[in-house]
């Protein structure tokens, strides 16, 4: 059942009228294609490209793959498998690399899903807010793929098989914090940004649960007071996140998402640094 569920496109990953006939089916080649289409908005210096301010502010607000593809078409008509110069790429975040790879994997027959969590390979002694793609490998196991990572990143692993102690899904970090094995003050968005702590980890737990249920949010989406910066967590907040972190099966994941405390509502707030806080009405989610 999980494979059938994660082969289906969601309102977020659906590539619309994209002709997928020319795409490779191999996950590694698809990830390479995504790396040639998307650049992280913090990679301008690495690629020797001064990213226009408008692209920094607007590209990553593209909630849907159809919007990403529209922007890419406006910047060039080359096939998606052809590597683009920086000026022809979509300027996004880790979530955009992950969502586009997820969409292409599903479109070419590989079950895939987004995972929200924390990476240990961007800064020493720090768990960085991050998104990757999880896909079904030929041997039947699930693998973590980080399509953002390329030759310019010094990582000691294959980006198509990220070790589970290099990228930790949000529930694993939550359990580590609750059990005293991890310091929540070392978990967040950038060591210098001030966005860190147990409240932040809980937000990623909820976003990961949503993504596993086909609601692939932007990293800065929120919908209740407990997701606000530095928000104190109630016993109910803690217990609900504990339950999500303990989930082990697809049945558990879908059952928990039916809990009103854990379900993303139809209207959310997008806390956008460049464009200000905005109310957003989400599309209907696919049925669990």
UniProtKB/TrEMBL annotation:
Span of domain Transglutaminase-like: 91-147
- Secretion signal: which residues? none
Residue ranges annotated as transmembrane are none
- UniProt-annotated stretches for the region Disordered: 1-25
Question: Pfam families annotated for this entry?
Answer: Transglut_core
Q: What is this protein called in UniProt?
A: Transglutaminase-like domain-containing protein
In its UniProt entry, the species of origin is given as: Streptomyces lomondensis
Taxonomically, what lineage is the organism? Answer: Bacteria, Bacillati, Actinomycetota, Actinomycetes, Kitasatosporales
